[in-house]
Amino acid sequence: MVRFVRVSKQYPGQSRPSLRDITLNVERGEFVFIVGPSGAGKSTLTRLIYREELPTSGQVIVGGVNVTRLRPSQVPYLRRNIGVIFQDFKLLPERTVYENVAFALQVTEASYREIQRRVPAALELVGLLDKAHQRAQELSGGEQQRVAVARAIVRSPSLVLADEPTGNLDPDNSWQIMKLLLEINRMGTTVIVATHAREIVDALQRRVVALEDGVLVRDDQKGSYGYAI
Ligand SMILES: Nc1ncnc2c1ncn2[C@@H]1O[C@H](COP(=O)(O)OP(=O)(O)OP(=O)(O)O)[C@@H](O)[C@H]1O
After folding, report:
1. Which of 19, 44, 216 maximizes ligand 1 atoms within 8 Å of its Cβ, making it the mutation to test the pocket?
2. In this structure, are strands 2-9 and 57-62 parallel, antiparallel, or unpaired?
3. Which pLDDT value is given to residue 229?
4. ipTM
5. Ligand 1 — pocket residues by CB below 6 A?
6. By the 8 A CB rule, do 24 and 209 touch?
7. Number of other residues whose CB lies within 10 A of the CB of residue 16
8. Chain segment 99-122, per-residue pLDDT in tens
9. How far apart (Å, rounded) are the C-alpha atoms in residues 157 and 224?
């Protein structure tokens, strides 16, 4: 599903690369945590997957497509198949829960009928159908992140990327979000989660890819977070 072949990334103006010679293979249907200290390169790695950034060298292949060679006009097609969840939710605060999720479909020119079918199903999955017509800004942080999860999955993407999805949440809400991501994975979606949530990573015993200073230092099938804070 996602393949990195000797990928390095150095941002313009930076003296050191943020990722160095990363080779990584994530199969379809996997659930993978990306861990590492602040600045290790976790966000950079996720941004390369949905082509928010381009590598300085190496290849990034997503669903068989070499995203480093995509023309800009093709990027939206790549992103249709990837749901992205961020630490700060990135919702439209004045819009309703329903509208926030529906927008993800409207940009793909989905039919009215399809929107009417998919949005309630996504909201049902995250347990927010009863809040569909509330404005996003009226919801708690945990609820807002659940809206963001619904928005990420409403197009039934084959890949969901979550960059620090629990960074702004308390432990209970963090667990809720991780359980949703696990549920989405059980339904067949590949899920990649960059996170600092040590307790959750340790409890779940899933594949853990660890970065340190831009280098992939560990890739364990049943891993733990593994760092002293
Ligand atoms: N747009 C950018 N321009 C220049 N440097 C950047 C940019 N984004 C990230 N960096 C640098 O790249 C390195 C890796 O950053 P990145 O955000 O990928 O790390 P991270 O592991 O996600 O950190 P955190 O856990 O704090 O979010 C850092 O040194 C950071 O300063």
Report:
1. 44
2. antiparallel
3. 46
4. 0.96
5. 11, 14, 18, 36, 38-44, 164
6. yes
7. 9
8. 999 999 998 888 999 999 999 999
9. 27
